[in-house]
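re: ur question from earlier - yeah i can do the single chain one, its not a big deal. heres the input i used so u can compare w yours
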Amino acid sequence: MSLLATLTTIRRLYFDTAPLIYYTEGHSEYLPTLHVIMSQIAPDRIHAITSVLTLTETLMKPLQQQQMTLFQQYRTLFYHTAALTTVPITAPIAELAATLRAQYRLRTPDALQIATAIDAGCDAFLTNDIALQRVTEIAVLVVADLATRAP
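and the output i got, formated as tokens:
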């Protein structure tokens, strides 16, 4: 199935941290695929969801390396993209994350991200961590796999 055909079945797409880093920092291998995905992020197409954990993870490196331009690019992405919502991690999400962590032996950040996606009613979870495909509660899309598909 082509990338665009895959995306037509999705109304709410959760973004793990890596795809947003690849997009913002222009990862040469994955940027074309992420451009296609991001072109579908619009109020009348696909609504993008991520968590405050993603905000923390994306801002850490630019702050550490004092790359204030990159820091501001991330802030612009999170705060000024019309169809991107950054959601908090709540106690019910944390409880679901504990269940997922126990069931799939996930790392805490991964469990929190997936639990947030499920709680937000997302149709799919976009990541580049192939190991997360073992989670069956939500469709897991891997950027590297999507990059091999024609738009």
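The mean pLDDT is 96. not sure if urs matches, ping me
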